[in-house]
Amino acid sequence: MPAVWRAWTTRARNSSGSGRTRSTGWHQHQSWSGWPAGSPAHLDLPAFDAFGRADRRIEVAEGISDDDRVFLRKRRRELADRLASLDFDSARGPVHGDAHTDNLMVDQQGGLHLIDLENFSLDRPEWDLVVSAHEYDRLGWVSGEEYREFVSCYGRDLRDWPGFGVLAAIQEFKTTTWLMQNTAEGPHIAEEVRVRLASLRDDDAPRNWQPY
Predict the structure, then answer these.
(1) How many angstroms separate the CA atoms of 93 and 179, rounded?
(2) Region (Disordered) spans which residues (predicted)?
């Protein structure tokens, strides 16, 4: 089934000429042309796994205190309950599942290609949209001009949806637990994890996070 991609991004080729996209945030919108309702008969696509490998990462991450593990387990249960109560207002469709710029490649003709499809699923488009909205609204990794262009292209600002806060909180939880597995890479990672865990304990606290 053909897919039509409308994408915009701050693009620059790296010094090796590989065409890897470099940007401070995710600036992609995808729309699919001709995709029927539901999943094509020859594809058996799962629903999006909102928490991914977070449970295992909580248990095996090194350098995490017992208190932090208890907090994260509780936070996971709370977010799952909040997610279960959401009313999505979009039809199910193809979801990339990890929609950030490191998963965009630029070919020699300037065409954009998505990579890393291990989380590709059939679910609500809000799961992809929340990445850009959260990086702009909470993290400041996307400029106002960039986000306005993104919203103009897509035709919807997810922040206007009542469920945005829940999906943004899940995004923060999942990216924090992902980073926890990398603490052995150096003290800068351990410090970033500490900062993020402190933020997760206060929904209203500023997210002075570094992108990884």
Answers:
(1) 28
(2) 1-33
